[in-house]
Specification:
Elements: H1 6-38, H2 42-54, H3 56-68, H4 71-94, H5 110-128, H6 142-163, H7 189-221, H8 225-230, H9 232-237, H10 239-250, H11 254-269, H12 271-279, H13 289-311, E1 316-317, E2 320-321, H14 322-338
Antiparallel strand pairs: 1-2
Helix pairs in contact: 1-2, 1-7, 1-10, 2-11, 3-4, 3-7, 3-12, 4-10, 4-11, 4-12, 4-13, 4-14, 5-6, 5-11, 5-13, 6-12, 10-11, 13-14
Amino acid sequence: MSSWGTPALVLVFAAAGVATWIAGIYLSKATDVLDERFGLGDAVGGMLLLGLAGSLPELAITASAALSGHLSLAVGNLMGGIAMQTLVLVFLDATSRKKQPLTSLVSDTSPLLESMLVIGLVTIAVMGGFLPETTAVGPVSPASIGIVLLFLLGIMGLNRARTRRVWAIATEAPPAVGEASNRFKASTTALVLGVFGAASLVTLFAGVMLEQTGNQLADDMGMNGVVFGATILAAVTALPEISSGIAAVRLGQVGLAMSDIYGGNAMQLTFFLLADLLAGDPVLSTASDQSLWLGTTGAVVTGIFAYGLLVRNDRKVIGLGRDSLLVLLTYLAAVALLTVVPG
């Protein structure tokens, strides 16, 4: 793609971004129906179905970058994407058309438990950045293995919490007003599964194009692969979460929207294991200080929203919940300070 020229690269990069946006809308509507028909529940369905489908761009980028040796782009996108995708919740809060903050509209404890899982996974990933290559098990970092094991245990725990409710929300969220209709409610399950699969394939292909064109654009602009992967590329790969999140909130499924974000964040961290296998070396051992800084930022903003889910403030400040406002300010400060982090 180096012979395409910058205008053509930008055009393909933008087209791939639009494709992920449109596919995300169909993924959200299909997941809403599949949740109901398979009895998954909004939160678990969002984490497994939307989380997996929404992470397909990151999967494609990670695989392509690991095979081509662009490890800084892969690590930057996976670590920096946590904070960027959590920032999507701020956008959903601002555009929800509700007087109450997003975190006060959730009527299930699953998003809170999922946020704790994400913080645990990010912590292991950051710890993995300090491990030398000599600790690897073959080509795999112990941290990559730990991430996958904790993810599987977390899914089991979430399913147990869903079927055996020990905690409950004291006050249910107010009923949604003017909810959008879902065209697939009357469709057959086979058709809905087909739509979900087709939208997933579009998202996966778009992710490959984003990595290929994005890496060349970063070279053309002379940008650090970590910074490009954590900012511009992470923002574009967050488009499925934005489009599906908007659709879910308008359908009145706030828990599904939040679980989509947390599920995608948790899922994409497991891709470090795939990156290790494809690269033939532990990828986390190559993580720069900038990548670790961005990963820690993702854990901090996730923790802020977890606190918001516990406190459940009932009013917004300048159009945002207090937790969303604090997340926005924290993210902006972290990005501003990124320029002085070594690397």
